[in-house]
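Re: your question about GTR2 protein

S., sorry for the slow reply, the queue was backed up all week. Below is exactly what I fed in.
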Amino acid sequence: FLQVFLVEKAGRRSLFLAGLMGMLISAVAMTVGLVLLSQFAWMSYVSMVAIFLFVIFFEVGPGPIPWFIVAELFSQGPRPAAIAVAGFCNWACNFIVGMCFQYIADLCGSYVFVIFAALLLAFFLFAYFKVPETKGKSFEEIAAVFRRKKLPARAMTELEDLRGSTEA
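Result:
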């Protein structure tokens, strides 16, 4: 519920990066908690707090923000296909993690969350260097960021572009 208001104040990119970094730190804390659990009984609390923080940071960033970004990165024409591909990738990855986690945990033991931490670091770096801020920007402005060109003084909207092509 708070995300709806927070995303307009803080921006999509900053919340996404904060969520990824928080999840990364939580995954490292879970690993430390699991590794040291046999030596310190109180590490179970560290692991539990890390799990709760992981979920909270997911709900702040990587949970909802990709849906905002996908909807804003594509113009009206390809948007439904892009959202379908994003949804498929999301659920396919969820399925893979759900089906394989027990086998990976058996294989890696207490270090199972190191894999997630490494992936989160890669996602953070990718988002930091490649994902633009989309808050308050039109599709044309976002597309210009990807083209690395400056937008002309007055960019033609998609609707105006369609009107112009039908009048010709």
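The mean pLDDT is 85. The helical segments are 2-10, 12-35, 43-60, 65-73, 79-108, 112-130, 139-147, 158-167.

Happy to talk it through on Thursday.
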